[in-house]
Design brief:
The chain is α/β, with parallel strands linked by helices. The protein has helices spanning 4-19, 25-37, 54-62, 75-84, 127-138, 160-178, 186-195, 219-229, and strands at residues 44-48, 67-72, 91-95, 113-119, 141-152, 233-240, 243-249. InterPro entries: Methyltransf_25, SAM-dependent_MTases_sf.
């Protein structure tokens, strides 16, 4: 059985692993939550590609009256989140694959959501499916609703020299934080999970494996898909190198 203590240790290790790619991860979380907090104090929030719930838990720590529906399709990450945050009011995990149309039906929203959020997750969606996700998402947000996406989004297709500068800034931030000794990488974390006698016994299902590429890592792809879904105001609220917090608003 996966205990709270075991899950807690692995989520702490997850967070350290993520910081190897995102040296300003906590600052980006703070900026995102600041934007959510600028609205009502009890928002309904959808967390897309929530992983073990790192963002969802931080949201509820700042906004305890919020309701957060956290969506992912990886049984291992969902199991960690459920074990760690079982007693956290306002948080509900939903096992759904965003690539499959109709994923919003499982959200069981009491009313249209105020905000949708995502961090370092949606880049693995191929562009046609990204468009479908944004279109379906727009249908469950209230008028004036907001989407916030923190991710590495490149401008290499529109501004190659600027893209090189953004990459250089990101590399410099990582070097300063870790002084040449970054934490374990993504592949090593998953290898350690597989070797753990408790986590390794969790069947990850074939459809949850392999969501680790960068199929839609261009800023232009996300902006275009959001505009096609009906979002009318789109811009960057926070940025460090090529790591951005993209905001999109419905009319």
């Amino acid at each position: 059985m996966l205990t709270h203590a075991h899950a807690h240790a692995w989520i702490e290790r997850w967070d350290r692993q993520q910081e190897g790619y995102l040296p300003d991860r906590e600052e980006r979380f703070t900026a995102l939550i600041d934007a959510v907090a600028a609205g009502r104090p009890d928002p309904i929030v959808i967390d897309l590609g929530c992983g073990p719930g790192s963002l969802s838990a931080r949201l509820l720590d700042r906004l305890p009256d919020a309701t957060v529906i956290a969506v992912d399709t990886d049984p291992l990450l969902l199991a960690l989140g459920r074990a760690e945050y079982a007693d956290l009011p306002g948080l509900r995990f939903v096992d759904r694959d965003l690539r499959v149309p109709g994923w919003t039906e499982a959200l069981e929203l009491p009313r249209p959501a105020d905000v949708a959020v995502s961090t370092t997750a949606l880049h693995w969606l191929p562009e046609p499916r990204l468009k479908n996700v944004y279109a379906e998402l727009a249908g469950v947000l209230r008028p004036g609703g907001m989407f916030l996406n923190g991710d590495h989004l490149a401008v290499s297709d529109t501004s190659p020299r600027l893209n090189d500068l953004e990459l250089a800034l990101a590399a410099g931030a990582t070097e300063r934080l870790f002084a040449g000794s970054p934490p374990e990488d993504w592949a090593s974390w998953w290898a350690a999970v597989a070797a753990d006698p408790i986590l390794g016994a969790i069947d990850r299902r074939q459809d949850s494996v392999g969501h680790h590429g960068s199929e839609s890592g261009l800023l232009s792809a996300h902006v275009g898909a959001l505009r096609a879904a009906g979002f009318t105001e789109i811009g960057t609220l926070w940025q460090r190198g090529n790591d951005r917090l993209l905001c999109a608003l419905l009319p």
